[in-house]
Amino acid sequence: MKTLKMFSRMFTSLTLAGMAMITAIGCNDDDEQDYITIDPEAQDGEWVNFIEDLSFESIILTQNQEDLNEALQQAAEGDLIFFEDSNVRKTQNLKNANGSSFSMAGFDGEQIAISTKTIANFPSDTSRGEKTNKSNRSCRILEITRSSLSTNIAHYQIMVRMGNGPYDVVRVHRVVRESQKYRPIRTEGNVFMIHGSSQDFDDIFLRPGVENPDAQNSSPFYLASNNIDVWGIDLGWTLVPLETTDFSSFQNWGITKDAGHVLKSMAIARLVRGLTRQGFGRMNLLGFSYGAGLTYNAAIQETQQHRILRDIKGIIPTDFVMVYEQNDSPFAAGTCSLSQMSETAHANGEYQNANGVGFITVGQAALDNPEGDSPFAPGLSNYQFALAAASGPQPNGPDWHFLGGQFNGQIPTGLTYTEEERWYKLLLSLAPYMPTYITAEGFKPVCPENRENTIAELGEIKVPVLYLGAQGGYGGDGVFSARLTGSSDVSVEIVTKLPNGPRILDYGHADLFMANDAAEVAWKPLRNWLVNH
Fold it and tell me: Which residues contact residue 126 at a Cβ distance below 8 angstroms, ignoring those fewer than 6 apart?
């Protein structure tokens, strides 16, 4: 029996209970090999202590001997391999063709045995990195916190450094039902959620305009209450402070970088799920608005990877269009124009989009001085302008709007499906800045000259797809993109209150996560799909 220092963290009194687990992870119990065990049912959260100091290039998770063999051949220096197959034999040579060894962990459903065997003699010409020093590895877990949302719903937040840039840090969220502290129940499904432009996980999912989430006002709370393991992310640019003046780090920050951060975060989520008795299986990826474009992008990226390196089980693009059915759609042209304008701004050194700052100002004025004259629209009050920003038609699609509203002629008078105060509070919570290059790069696929390439890339996606839309948002326009995928399992859920129109008054883009009845009309069908996928 041994104790060990694992990834610079000393675990005392954690010893391997018997030789069976050594056999299970397929390594010899010699003087060069140490092990620890982690009890996922421990009340003090041993799994939190384990992952809190992890550093890695990538995490590879496997579920059987065949996957493990493939992982060993695909792994690169700095990678961690985890597996949950108790049939891996002691005689198995756990090295790749280059003779390199890796940090590995085996999970038998009850306890986790971790080997400290690290990489050695990795060839310097590998295409997946050459880093050997832990402190130089691109991904590091910085901090894990836990809070209670109710007596049995917990909210975990994991801060992860993704690179060496000043804002190469993301916040990964988990909302899950627990039987007791640090002990999630055995869930029935899972989802990893990506927010939209100028938003973060709290803004649009967990606390959209509310302080205290519950099963009626918070989609993660609702899903967790119904035995779904809910994960999400705050993309790095959401953590940039309002007072920031240097945006040079945004110069090359586009959708490709965001997608890479999402996929690495999903691997962390899969690891934690395994350490808390949910298994290491792949996860469903939901993206809302810009997050839906990011979801498609991440899924497309994975089609170019070996299957053992993939993290996505299914995708839920929510109210978004990648390709308009009509090639000459004026909305495709408008979206393409936005990409081109952003590209020009980026070329001129404008690396940040400050739309969030403007939205914060609109929300603050509506709350502080609702009847005062709007500085943005002469003739409207601050209250009316904030309503117009929510419910007025936008160029994203025919009568596209963020939230369904009420009008007296052309003047907005209220919101129909979402409480007005929640909208104002949402505006106050938005991220102030977003990289300009995200818009330039992210909307390019919609441009007519890229149409055929986008269609071809979508056709490579084979995982199950649920398209969730709002008729007053992108609605049915997003179905065409979903059905262009190569998936044999495509489902469609479009929320509409006015199937015969007018569309301008129908369920809006963000009503899917903010409306008073969203739990019944949007989250319930989502939950049912997740349970079956």
Answer: 76, 77
Phi, psi values for residue 310, rounded to 5°: -90, 145
Q: Which residue has the tokens 């299914």?
A: 314
Tell me how many degrees the CA angle 466-82-66 measures, rounded to the nearest 5.
80
Identity (one letter) of the amino acid at 173? H
CA distance 373 to 486: 52
Convert 346-384 to b/e letters by CB count within 10 Å (16 or more is b).
beeeebbbbbbeebbebbebbbeeeeeebeeeeebbbbb
Give the model confidence (pLDDT) of 447-505 as tens digits.
988 999 999 999 999 999 999 999 999 999 999 999 999 999 999 999 999 999 899 99
| Distance between start and end Cα atoms, the chain | 41
pLDDT digits (tens, 9 = 90+) for 348-396: 999 999 999 999 999 999 999 999 999 999 999 999 999 999 999 998 8
- 10 Å Cβ neighbour count for 75? 27
Contact between 283 and 468 (Cβ < 8 Å): no
Q: Would you state the torsion angle of the CA atoms of residues 522, 525, 530, 532, taken in this order, to the nearest 10 degrees?
A: -170
Query: What phi and psi values does residue 384 have, to the nearest 5 degrees?
Result: -65, -40
**Amino acid type, 519:** A
Strand (E) positions, 358-455? 405-408, 411-415, 434-435
- The token pair at 412 is 């907005």
Residue 491 bridge partners (DSSP): 466
Which helix H or strand E contains 38, and what residues bound it? strand 35-38
Beta bridge partners of 62: 83
| CB distance 171 to 159 below 8 Å | yes
DSSP classification of residue 40: T
CA distance 110 to 515: 41
Task: Report the alpha-carbon distance of residue 402 to residue 409 in Å, rounded.
Answer: 19
**How far is CA 310 from each of CA 142, 171, 239, rounded to the nearest angstrom?**
24, 21, 27
